[in-house]
Amino acid sequence: xxxxxxxxxxxxxxxxxxxxxxxxxxxxxxxxxxxxxxxxxxxxxxxxxxxxxxxxxxxxxxxxxxxxxxxxxxxxxxxxxxxxxxxxxxxxxxxxxxxxxxxxxxxxxxxxxxxxxxxxxxxxxxxxxxxxxxxxxxxxxxxxxxxxxxxxxxxxxxxxxxxxxxxxxxxxxxxxxxxxxxxxxxxxxxxxxxxxxxxxxxxxxxxxxxxxxxxxxxxxxxxxxxxxxxxxxxxxxxxxxxxxxxxxxxxxxxxxxxxxxxxxxxxxxxxxxxxxxxxxxxxxxxxxxxxxxxxxxxxxxxxxxxxxxxxxxxxxxxxxxxxxxxxxxxxxxxxxxxxxxxxxxxxxxxxxxxxxxxxxxxxxxxxxxxxxxxxxxxxxxxxxxxxxxxxxxxxxxxxxxxxxxxxxxxxxxxxxxxxxxxxxxxxxxxxxxxxxxxxxxxxxxxxxxxxxxxxxxxxxxxxxxxxxxxxxxxxxxxxxxxxxxxxxxxxxxxxxxxxxxxxxxxxxxxxxxxxxxxxxxxxxxxxxxxxxxxxxxxxxxxxxxxxxxxxxxxxxxxxxxxxxxxxxxxxxxxxxxxxxxxxxxxxxxxxxxxxxxxxxxxxxxxxxxxxxxxxxxxxxxxxxxxxxxxxxxxxxxxxxxxxxxxxxxxxxxxxxxxxxxxxxxxxxxxxxxxxxxxxxxxxxxxxxxxxxxxxxxxxxxxxxxxxxxxxxxxxxxxxxxxxxxxxxxxxxxxxxx
Length: 737
Prior knowledge:
This protein is of the alpha+beta class. 32% of the residues lie in helices and 26% in strands. Strands 6-7-13-12-9-14 form a six-stranded antiparallel beta barrel. Strands 17-18-19-20 form a four-stranded antiparallel sheet, with no helix packed on it. Strands 21-22-23-24 form a four-stranded antiparallel sheet, with no helix packed on it.
């Protein structure tokens, strides 16, 4: 028997399907060794050597089980993920299981397909110590920064704060943008647009006022606008120039981790964390009705746009077959990977183009289908021809004023037929306006004039998509860490969401200001990017990893001494709209051991405090009581919201509100709160009795990226954490925001 060890049970199931008899595939369930939780876990007397251990009981059980399997195996293969983390896990397995380091037992594959898996088995390698040391350096450095700075923030600002090598630099970017917005002073300007028509020629078109006496014009006040309108209302409009050209737009390269997250946020409204979780499922594989256990996409942690020759050929064949040869370029499209990219793996693409998104739409979860469709179409479109447009730029004069109209019409959709967007839609004005046939010297008729007072706008706040793009451009963090960085910023309450945009909280701004004052390198974007490059260089053995760690850590210790001599930061009270019911003073929001709460601002004269969660007053509904006919009230009680008759106490009828908390992981219908005969709260599917799903814990609506079981929210002290419903799975999804 040959033993293959992977990271997740889902991946083990997929690979086991391809290897068949003679092989046993088992899972380490992630890292088997961790740094200790309550101590630094770094040996300073021995080149910062990490003091790794099997900290969790399940890790010890995994090691014991795998040792038994190794004893029975004639050959052991380590098939963890093909990246730094995966290499480190393989190295730790090699050490913990006493495997011979002189043997080639490391196998890697970019996609979980029969061809790739069997090819890897035939070509085992040695463990790459450069990758292991690069991962070790990052892990140690992040531990040193976190465990050194976080206690300083907790002592000088407030409890439960943290700082990090990547998170603090990312927060600085968001905070700096907010400061730009706050300092911004809007300037007045006016716009004028003329709707014009060429006699007997449709359609009408819009030209915007842009010039005066041949020079660029910006109307700064109403007086200047009125002067222009006086001429434009009665003047003669003549076409002075028509410039026509044919333009082409190129398809985008297939996804990297970063661009996939950006498109998932922008187009699918997923958070980066959800996108990565779903992508992991698509990579590791899951059960699809009628197909068995199948993996759908290549490795999802990559910064490369390179794809294999076989994949390119498959894409070109499908384009020619489905769309026609006019959509196929003479030669394959190739894309250049950025200089700073590691280029260790292919871009993210479908493994098998024969598995189309539509063929699995009704067999998988909605977010799995959506993300797979996005990946599939982006990859296929990357091998299609350019889209072709007719572009027109028209200049119109009226007295001393000049106006401009632009238009763009689609001649040939090319790649847009596969991976299009709404921008190609034709409109009356704007970039995609349709213009009538115009020639120099044409006299056109004024239909109407529109003028509007406007003000310059501050720079836009970041969204998850744009901050990820900025982090990548500036070299902050690595694609695999972007989602985790965002989750940390939310969890620490440094950043809030206002719709799509990211708004730093007062706490986030205070923490950044404090770090700038005492630990400027931690929040310096350029310094953080340079450190990333140094950490990357460890893979090539450019410098001993512990030297790079030491060069960062020693100055940090000196900065800590200076910071500890400084004064404590006093956070300003957050004034709320609430009024104290005891004395009438405004209530303020404070943070205590168990989170935020309302406190009276009139303290110590009034010491009233209450929970931030208010009990809402009864709300009259349109639902009639089936006993007396009166309207029902929506109330909130011990077990949540319910309906009660407004005719109380004459009528004491009540009934529950089936409040949906998530989608059923079995059938996709709503899961609602229910109560047992003894009053115990549980969650059940509205599809009962056809669907028998019930859970004591709140389901998240997502599946576990490790084993495929459904995820739930569990209480852990005063926190709510995400865990797998399968007791045998150790997936830790972190805290719920």
